[in-house]
Amino acid sequence: MCGRRSFPGIFTLMSEPSSDSSAHISPILLVACLCARWCRTCDTYRATLNAVRAELRRTRPHAHLRFLWIDIEDEAALIGDLDIENFPTILLASDEQGLFLGPVMPHAAALDRLILAALDGDLPPVTLPEGDAATLPARLAEHTDL
Question: Is the pTM of this model over 0.90?
Answer without folding.
Answer: no
